[in-house]
Write a structure and sequence with these properties.
Layout (H helix, E strand, L loop, with lengths): L2 E10 L3 E4 H5 L6 H8 L3 E4 L6 H16 L8 E5 L10 H9 L6 E4 L6 H14 L5 E9 L17 E11 L4 E8 L7 E2 L17 E2 L1 H22 L9 E4 L4 H10 L11 H4 L6 H11 L8 E8 L3 E8 L1
Parallel strand pairs: 4-5, 4-6, 11-12
Antiparallel strand pairs: 1-7, 2-3, 6-7, 8-13, 9-10, 12-13
Bound molecules: coenzyme A.
Coenzyme A (COA) binds next to helix 2 and helix 6.
């Protein structure tokens, strides 16, 4: 059995930027409050014509270019998104059609929310390890701006839009060393997006995302701490073996707590939160792409990716880049 290695990454961010100062004109908030409590300064917002599909397509082309492969070489497409173009066909099928590569498996992971990218990466990794496919395209793409209530200051300040893509390719050397996925539905009410489809008794429920921020904050710090211990133990590694933390970008205080847990200085944490906010399933591949592109992350570095979100669902991936 071989390994799956990251052979290319790409990202796409909508042109429009919404700053904290812009938000001050929409809700009762301040730039200072948002920066102090979250670390976010601005976020990108999709234009009316942009969707999770168009952004995924843009990120996919950048990643294929970086990997030096053609669409026909892709053996599987997984798009992690809570804001898909349609309920079905999947965003991945629509992307496959645009890439002109009918035949390979293509599907969305719709409901793993901000943990979606690590879940998708884990699935693609299994297929490559088993030798079933050579290359997989794993994308996180979200238009969170369409599922936040812009009149709710406790949630609208947090999220942004964008897409990140990773091409995994079969390799003899590691690669993805291990992935660890978890979920706990007892925390279903901490973060959720009501969906009327398939639920005739719930037609009057909120259209927008609901969150208990304080509870989620505490839960995430706790579960991520255990997740790091599990990930390192599974690979017989120490904290000092990790060169980079590539976290889900939810709150700078959560990220700082996680860096501390790993004894990593913040310079060794891939951060995009300040510029992009929380882009849900897109946040990890976008942070990874940025740090690879500006050459902070180098070949041979040991990367710890972690994501958590509604479900609760959470997971990690340890990767020798
Ligand atoms: N601007 C100004 N004041 C705000 C505000 C805003 N945007 N949002 C809330 N406040 C107020 C509250 O009303 C509260 O006022 P009070 O003390 O008079 O009642 C005060 O600020 C503190 O609110 P609190 O909710 O305790 O703040 P917090 O420090 O917990 O920060 C979050 C709130 C949402 C930023 C934080 O809890 C968080 O990031 N949680 C995790 C969220 C997350 O990870 N989500 C995505 C997961 S994928």
């Amino acid at each position: 059995m071989g390994y799956a290695q990251i052979i290319g990454t790409g990202g796409y961010l909508p042109e429009k930027i919404l700053t904290n100062f812009d938000l001050e004109k929409i809700v009762d908030t301040s730039h200072e409050w948002i920066v102090e409590r979250t670390g976010i300064h601005q976020r990108h917002i999709a234009a009316a014509h942009e969707t999770s599909l168009t952004m995924a397509e843009n990120a996919a082309h950048v990643a294929m270019n970086a990997a030096g492969i053609m669409p026909a070489e892709i053996g599987m497409i997984i798009v992690a998104t809570t804001t898909p173009e349609k309920t079905f066909p999947s965003t991945a099928c629509l992307l496959q059609q645009r890439l002109g590569i009918a035949g390979c498996p293509a599907f969305d992971l719709n409901s793993t929310a901000c943990a979606g990218f690590v879940y998708a990466l884990s699935i693609a990794d299994q297929f490559i390890r088993q030798g079933a496919i050579n290359n997989a395209m794993v994308i996180g793409s979200e238009v969170m701006s369409r599922v936040v209530d812009w009149s709710d200051r406790t949630i609208s300040i947090l999220f942004g839009d964008g897409a990140g893509a990773v091409i995994l390719g079969a390799a003899e050397q590691p690669g993805v060393l291990s992935t660890h996925l978890h979920a706990d539905g007892t925390h279903k009410d901490v973060l959720f997006l009501p969906n009327h489809i398939g639920n005739v008794t719930d037609v009057d429920t909120e259209l927008y995302m609901q969150m208990n921020g304080k509870q989620l904050f505490k839960l995430s710090v706790n579960i991520l701490g255990h997740l790091f211990d599990e990930t390192l133990a599974a690979n017989n590694l120490k904290k000092s073996d990790v060169n980079w933390l590539v976290p889900h970008q939810a709150n700078i205080r959560i990220i700082e707590a996680m860096a501390k847990k790993l004894d990593l200085p913040m310079e060794r944490v891939a951060i995009t939160l300040n510029e992009q906010g929380n882009t849900s399933a897109a946040s990890i591949p976008l942070a990874l792409d940025k740090a690879i592109r500006d050459t902070r992350i180098k070949r041979g570095d040991m990367l710890l990716l972690e994501g958590f979100g509604g479900g609760l669902a959470w997971g990690s991936a340890l990767i020798k880049y």
